[in-house]
Design a protein that fits this description.
- The protein is mainly beta.
- It contains five helices and 61 strands.
- Strands 51, 52, 53, 54 and 55 form a five-stranded antiparallel β-sheet that branches. Strands 1-25-24-23 form a four-stranded antiparallel β-sheet, with no helix packed on it. It has a four-stranded antiparallel β-sheet with strand order 2-3-4-5, with no helix packed on it.
Length: 824
């Protein structure tokens, strides 16, 4: 390219297939992109359906394409929110505007729109989000443009003066102060909606009434238009919005019946947001071309020698993803502007380990000065951001699993495991639970498996962390049954529990063992109480009250002194059971009422809650234990899905791994005790939905492979071990920055009676370093050795006469070769 750009058209393998783009007539574009997702028109349902795919491919290098039924008639235009990758606005010939909370194409899409607006001006043609204010939309109908605040859905903020003919295009100025339009009456108009409903500038600018587009040039006063001249030649013109009488310049692009979008046959073109570009390869622009059967990515790169440095001259500050103000604030005259924002790990998250790029901690012996500069420029990032999940060899799988219970309550994790065995609920009558020994992996028998029979439906169950043979099962009959699994596993069906705990008056939600004291169990129930049990005596020892509704989840603090609960009444509570039956602290929990989980993080200083926001989006919240009443100090939205994200927290790395029953994606975050608190890491994706994910003790991890967590993934027909590893180059060394001394949490520090009497315990710690490995912090630095010495090295060793002789010999050889070639 003469302008210095290297334009790369992907080969067929890089095209997004399974696309059925329709040929429809509307004023809007037919494809739009956020940093994560791509939405486009399809020919299905008369154009009322949209296709949805992702910007980046999945772990298999391919794109998943799904469709969403949106409207009863043609979708005429669409737009992603600049502040939310998953918020999509659509307008249609059915005279409605809808807002959708879409999610990854592999996941189940929402069944309906979150917001529906009815402008009442006939067929709608255009929709555009405001660039600085959240929830503010410009909507264009046949002749009228309206402004809507999505939080007040009854009527528009303003209806601008009608145009003289068909409205063809709308564009906001980057600072959000002005709105420009182009129209079939050949006029260009500029509106200041807060000052007046009539145009502040208007002029006969277009040469033809054929199709046109208008676009503000950044935050300047210049406007760019594309359209047709009087000879039907396509043209581009530049205008000063303050003087629309004549254009500042123009360029003719030749004659064609097609609109001036690209020079190739296309149904639409979308530009991928800047925050999704690969800056380390000097990608400055990415365009997605929609054709009848494919979406073709077109990448624009600036050739640079170094791909290891950030080239600041190519990337001026770009707009961030946080709205400067609300629609109401803007309408009242607010002039706040977005602050420039640097891309973080959550801006365009990797969809799989294979799609990540860049260098993680440990790829280099020590960070260079340029690396530090990039790190400070791009903001905080996690050393675990490239964490890779991998399913282990099939020899370690349990296969041919039949009769799995797929309808366990939302408060139940779905199954549980310890270092020796796994417990799986079955759908057969009598609340049966199958026990599988991890040392006996393989294909399971079709029939005749011994089980634990509880005689009632199972609500929740858990292994004793200090006794790998003891399993407690909570039933819907308000009883807790304690079972003892014999050494080597079940050889016959068990029907008589070791102990039955009775005290709750209604069915039980969940059970949780104390993290320090042996034989101490907490249970929550529909009777809105939490009860503590001493398993050694079989007695109920404490009853905690104060809940006003369903108890979604509970968790003991790491030191075992406190118990936290999250409830459907919207409250987060902390109890000190030995001092009071009432909560010692209360605070606001998640707004959504579909389910939640709570876990203590960062040495017990914070509570992380996994729940739903008011729009039913799954969201993570972080609360300070010292000021629970102040509300969440940080949040991290994930996606829209009906199942609650179940967290597993590793205190050694401060990494939390989350997934929901029925999901195919596993989210991973590092939690840090300072802003931004949540550092998103590469997620793990499975090929089929899983029913649960349980984790094993840290000693089961293979440190030689830099494995920081090992889990068991339960699917409909199998149990598969999954290893989560940090990619490192020098694996021959023990990565002591990843493996601090770990707590021996599988050994109790005191008895239940001692804890109830007021004593506290603390786990011992051990090192995971094998005896034959050296810590990487003590490893010798690698010396860079050049494969070949530079020519100057050889020349310095020779005299001038030797150099002349060598030159003469080379010349003679070249002459001889040329003569031989000519003679042939």
């Amino acid at each position: 390219n003469s302008n210095g750009f290297l334009v790369k058209y992907s080969n067929n393998s890089g095209w997004i297939s399974n696309v059925r783009a329709g040929s429809f007539t509307s004023q809007g574009n037919h494809i739009k992109s956020s940093t994560r997702l791509v939405a486009f028109n399809t020919d299905q349902a008369g154009g009322g359906m949209l296709g949805l795919t992702s910007v980046e491919p999945g772990s298999d290098g391919k794109w998943t394409v799904t469709v969403i039924p949106c409207h009863a008639d043609l979708v005429t235009d669409l737009d992603f929110s600049p502040f939310d990758d998953n918020l999509l606005a659509t307008c249609s010939a059915d005279e409605t505007v809808k807002l959708w909370r879409v999610c990854e194409p592999e996941q189940e899409q929402p069944g309906g729109a979150e917001v529906t607006l009815c402008p009442g001006e006939g067929r709608l043609e255009l929709v555009a989000f405001h660039p600085t204010s959240s929830g503010l939309l410009a909507v264009g109908s046949t002749k009228t443009a309206q402004l809507w605040d999505t939080s007040r859905q009854q009527s528009p903020l303003a209806a601008l003066e009608p145009h003289g003919d068909q409205l063809q295009s709308l564009s906001w100025k980057q600072d959000g102060s002005l709105l420009a339009s182009s129209c079939k009456d050949k006029k260009l108009r500029v509106f200041d909606p807060r000052a007046q409903l009539t145009p502040v500038q208007s002029a006969q600018g277009l040469q033809s009434n054929k199709d046109s587009r208008i676009l503000w040039v950044k935050d300047s006063d210049h406007i760019l238009t594309t359209g047709f001249d009087q000879m039907r030649g396509r043209e581009v013109r530049l205008w000063d919005s303050r003087k629309l009488g004549s254009s500042l310049g123009s360029a003719n692009l030749g004659t064609s019946n097609g609109h001036c979008l690209t020079d190739a046959p296309t149904r639409g073109v979308a530009m991928v947001p800047k925050l999704a570009l690969d800056v380390m390869s000097c990608e400055v622009m990415r365009v997605l071309q929609l054709t009848d059967s494919f979406i073709v990515p077109i990448n624009y790169h600036v050739p640079r020698k170094s791909g290891q440095e950030f080239h600041a001259d190519l990337y001026p500050d770009t707009l961030g993803r946080t709205a400067a103000m609300s629609a109401a604030e803007w309408w009242k005259g607010g002039e706040k502007q977005q602050s420039p924002e640097l891309p973080s790990s959550s801006a365009a998250p990797s969809r799989s380990p294979s799609s990540t790029s860049g260098l993680s901690s440990g790829f280099l012996p020590s960070p260079s000065q340029s690396g530090k500069a990039i790190s400070s420029m791009l903001g905080p990032s996690s050393k675990f951001r490239h964490l890779q999940g991998a399913v282990l060899h099939r020899d370690t799988h349990f296969t041919n699993l039949k009769g799995l219970n797929l309808t366990t309550p939302g408060e139940c994790d779905g199954f549980c495991a310890n270092r020796h065995r796994v417990a799986v609920p079955l759908a057969t009558a009598g609340g049966q639970i199958a026990i599988f020994e991890l040392s006996q992996a393989g294909k399971l028998a079709d029939t005749g498996l011994p089980t634990i029979q509880n005689s009632v439906n199972v609500a929740d169950f858990s292994w004793d962390p200090f006794n790998s043979h003891r399993l407690v099962v909570a039933g819907e009959d308000a009883k807790i049954r304690v079972w003892q699994v014999p050494e080597g596993g079940l050889t016959e069906t068990l029907t008589e529990p070791e102990t039955i705990l009775q005290g709750h008056t209604e069915k039980i939600y969940s059970v949780k063992f104390h993290p320090q004291a042996s034989g101490l169990l907490a249970s929550s129930s529909y009777d809105q109480t939490v009860r503590l049990w001493n398993l050694e005596s079989g007695d109920e020892v404490k009853v905690l009250r104060g809940h006003q509704d369903q108890i979604f989840g509970m968790a003991w603090s790491p030191d075992g002194k406190l118990l936290a609960t999250v409830c459907k009444d919207g409250k987060l509570r902390i109890y000190d059971p030995r001092k009071s039956a009432d909560p010692v602290q209360e605070g606001a929990g998640p707004e959504g009422h579909r389910g939640a989980r709570v876990v203590w993080v960062c040495d017990g200083k914070y509570l992380m809650v996994s729940g739903f926001d008011s729009r039913s989006e799954r969201t993570l919240y972080l609360h300070s234990v010292e000021s629970l009443s102040s509300g969440a100090i940080a949040s991290a939205p994930t996606d829209v899905s009906p199942s609650t994200l179940i967290p597993f927290y590793d205190p050694d790395t401060s990494v939390v791994i989350l997934t929901g029953k029925g999901d195919t994606r596993v989210y991973i975050f590092e939690i840090v005790p300072e802003a931004p608190y949540f550092l998103e890491c590469a997620s793990f994706n499975s090929s089929e939905p899983h029913k649960g994910l349980a984790f094993l003790p840290k000693t089961e991890c293979v440190v030689q492979e830099v494995e920081v967590a090992r889990g068991l993934r339960l699917s409909k027909t199998s149990i598969e071990p999954v290893a989560f590893r940090v990619p490192r180059v020098r694996k021959e060394f023990f990565q002591d920055d990843v493996y601090p001394d770990t707590a021996v949490w599988w050994e109790s520090s005191l008895t239940a009676s001692a804890w109830l009497a007021g004593s506290d315990g603390k786990h011992q710690s051990i090192s995971l370093k094998p005896k034959d490995m050296t810590p990487v912090s003590e490893a010798p630095k690698e010396v860079q050795v050049r494969k070949y010495l530079p020519s100057s090295h050889y020349l310095e060793e020779k005299t001038d006469e030797q150099k002349k002789d060598e030159v003469c010999v080379c010349v003679c050889v070249c002459v001889c070769v040329c003569v031989l070639l000519l003679s042939e």
